[in-house]
């Protein structure tokens, strides 16, 4: 039996939701400013990305993590497929039925997805390089990263935060689709003015997770300005999203992406314009 070689750090089930009618994705490479078409099976992935080389010599299955991630993805795909089937038919303030066990599964998925990407690996490698004063090779970078993902205390810390957050869904009926990226869990400051690389330093930051071109999930912590949102928990938002609001959310994908922003359409004009402003305050008044 052939062993899996190309390991996705964004699940294929998620990527397929953003494919066009021909089951293809449009990708914008923000490093080279190139737009091209690809398939969900060929992007946001690297060979042996989760191979546990640190345990292989002792006879352990080096693909254990990849298999565990695949199992989790299967569960989350089934749960969220239901949500995406229901939400287009729902009325504002209708509640999505989310059993406690399903909430826990999806919260853990969000935590793992936040940690499993190439962006996290590159950050860990940069920290290690600063600490020791010399570069980290690819094998050690993989081992540092897989140890982080496999740390139950770290994963549970974020999963708990997501479980206890107020989940609000919003539907996009505008002509502009939600986009995703190779780092799809976006974090926004509580005043809506900034996208953030991490939740750690801003306790009141919230999650913006586009689940499809037409549905987004917000996870608001029950602190600060979001204390009163409890009455909307698990509901479809009453807010009607327009094109500029969707573009604002898509700017988060342009900010978070390690390299690729992905869509079912080839138009990345707004995302390219936003990316050129990262590190400035040009968009701050618009995000308020």
What tags apply to this protein structure?
globular, alpha+beta, single chain, 288 residues, 4-stranded antiparallel β-sheet, 12 strands, 6-stranded mixed β-sheet
Low-confidence stretches: 282-288
Distance between the termini: 54 Å
**What is the total number of structural domains?**
1
Helix fraction?
25-40%
What percentage of amino acids are in beta strands? Answer: 15-25%
How many helices does DSSP assign? 10
Structural class: alpha+beta
The whole-angstrom Rg is 19 Å
Order of strands in the sheet with most strands: 8-7-9-10-5-11
**H/E element string?**
EHEEEHHHHHHEEEEEEEHEHH
Overall number of strands:
12
Largest β sheet strand count, sense and barrel closure: 6 strands, mixed
Mean pLDDT: 93
Tell me the overall shape: globular
Sum this structure up briefly.
The chain has 288 residues and is α+β, with helices and mostly antiparallel strands.
Provide a descriptive summary of the structure in words.
This protein has 288 residues and is α+β, with helices and mostly antiparallel strands. The chain has one domain (6-287). Helices cover 39% and strands 16% of the residues. The chain is built from 10 helices and 12 strands. The chain has helices at residues 12-16, 53-56, 64-86, 100-115, 118-132, 138-149, 152-163, 243-256, 269-275, 284-287, and strands spanning 6-8, 25-29, 34-38, 45-47, 166-171, 180-181, 186-188, 195-196, 206-210, 215-220, 235-236, 260-263. The strands form 3 sheets. It has a 6-stranded mixed beta sheet, covered by helices on one side. α3 crosses α4 and α4 (100-115) packs across α7 (152-163). The longest helix has 23 residues, at 64-86.
């Amino acid at each position: 039996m052939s062993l899996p070689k190309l390991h996705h750090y964004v699940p294929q089930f998620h990527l397929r939701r953003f494919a066009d009618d021909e089951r293809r994705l449009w990708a914008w490479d923000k490093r080279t400013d190139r737009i091209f078409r690809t398939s969900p099976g060929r992007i946001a992935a690297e060979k042996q990305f989760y191979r546990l080389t640190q345990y292989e010599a002792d006879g352990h299955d080096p693909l254990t993590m990849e298999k565990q991630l695949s199992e989790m993805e299967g569960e989350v795909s089934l749960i969220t497929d239901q949500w995406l089937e229901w939400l287009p038919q729902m009325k504002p303030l209708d509640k999505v039925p989310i059993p406690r066990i399903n909430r826990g599964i999806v919260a853990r998925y969000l935590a793992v997805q936040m940690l499993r990407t190439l962006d996290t690996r590159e950050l860990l490698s940069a920290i290690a390089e600063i600490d020791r004063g010399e570069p980290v090779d690819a094998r050690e970078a993989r081992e540092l990263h897989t140890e982080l993902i496999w740390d139950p205390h770290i994963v549970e810390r974020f999963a708990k935060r997501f479980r206890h957050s107020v989940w609000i869904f919003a539907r996009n009926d505008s002509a502009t689709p939600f986009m995703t990226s190779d780092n799809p869990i976006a974090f926004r400051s509580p005043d809506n003015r900034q996208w953030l690389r991490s939740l750690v330093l801003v306790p009141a930051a919230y999650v913006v997770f586009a689940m499809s071109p037409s549905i987004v999930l917000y996870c608001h912590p029950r602190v600060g300005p979001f204390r009163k949102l409890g009455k909307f928990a698990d509901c479809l938002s009453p807010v009607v999203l327009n094109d500029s609001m969707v573009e604002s959310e898509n700017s988060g994908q342009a900010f978070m992406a390690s390299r690729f922003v992905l869509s079912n359409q080839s138009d990345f004009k707004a995302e390219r314009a936003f990316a050129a402003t990262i590190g400035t305050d040009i968009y701050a008044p618009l995000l308020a």
